[in-house]
Design a protein that fits this description.
The chain has 284 residues and is of the alpha/beta class. The chain has 9 helices and 9 strands. It starts with 15 loop residues before the first strand and ends in an 11-residue tail after the last helix.
């Protein structure tokens, strides 16, 4: 005897979906879960794989062709578009925007915009749903995450505008994961300013299941977090920004006094501004 699916997942079997970032940690796990639930899924990612179309979402023509190919593989019907593709470079927000900043905006914000626009005709025909993965950091200002934070806050604004203009025909949900240890943090670790310990950690499964539940909900929810703590944090960060900034400032001061980011060249100015001594470069 087959166990019936929970109510919030019953609409998923038989639906057609595209998942961006489908070769990454979140994307590949979500594709596997959706297929297990009976969803027909085609992935899009810069790294092609079985069932994943190679597509650089910063390239207009590749996006047009990639989305058209994906919709074609789904027999022309698209019910779900799930966005994961993203990057998280470490930058000094007081410096001029460099290639890392441009990449964050191109991938996190404009990549999502491009893919959604290319998929919109199919989504309108099916009265489908878009699930956009933003971040709790879209409203939490942590050091060296400025490019990521700015791009993700802009992404939440894009989702809100999309909902306002297309919400009569297309559902739009924004998911806000917390800190999850995935390869997106490799660049900040390499720079010496990883965010481990600065925000509550969540598991990969938390994000994946939050997205799957958002996809399967009978009515598209506006904003969801991945955990109960994340839900509380989302409320705090959005509605009490002043208190959030004070908490972050205090935490940064405590971390710096304990030697956090001590070997990172990018942190020299932050140490100085918080009353410490500038970090000395490593001897060659």
């Amino acid at each position: 005897m087959t166990t019936p699916l929970p109510r919030h997942l019953r609409r998923l079997p038989g639906q057609n979906a595209i998942v961006t970032g489908a070769s990454g940690a979140f994307g590949s796990a979500t594709v596997a879960v959706l297929r297990h639930l009976g969803v027909n899924v085609v992935g899009i990612d810069r790294k092609p794989a079985p069932g994943v179309i190679g597509c650089d979402i910063t390239d207009d023509e590749q996006v047009r062709q990639g989305v058209a190919e994906a919709v074609g593989q789904l027999d022309g019907r698209l019910d779900l578009l799930i966005h994961y593709a993203g990057v998280g470079p470490a930058v000094d927000i007081g410096q001029a925007p460099d290639a890392n900043v441009h990449q964050a905006l191109e991938v996190n914000l404009l990549g999502t915009w491009r893919v959604t626009a290319a998929a919109m005709p199919a989504l309108l025909r099916s009265r489908g749903r878009v699930v956009i993965t933003a971040s709790l950091l879209s409203n939490l200002q942590l050091p060296f995450a400025g490019a990521y934070t700015v791009s993700k806050r802009a992404l939440t604004a894009y989702a809100d505008c999309l909902r306002a203009e297309y919400g009569t025909h297309v559902g739009v949900t924004t998911v806000h994961p917390g800190y999850v240890d995935t390869p997106i943090h490799d660049s900040s670790r390499a720079t010496g300013v990883a965010l481990d310990g600065l925000v509550p950690a969540e598991g990969e499964r938390d994000t994946v299941m939050a997205v799957v539940r958002a996809a399967g909900a009978g009515r598209a929810r506006r904003d969801v977090a991945s955990t109960a703590i994340g839900t509380a944090g989302l409320h705090l960060f959005r509605h009490f920004p002043g208190a959030t900034e004070q908490i972050v400032s205090l935490q940064i001061g405590l971390l710096l006094s304990d030697g956090a980011f001590g070997d990172a060249e990018i942190a020299r100015g932050l140490h100085t501004r918080h009353g410490g001594h500038p970090v000395q470069p490593n001897a060659s």
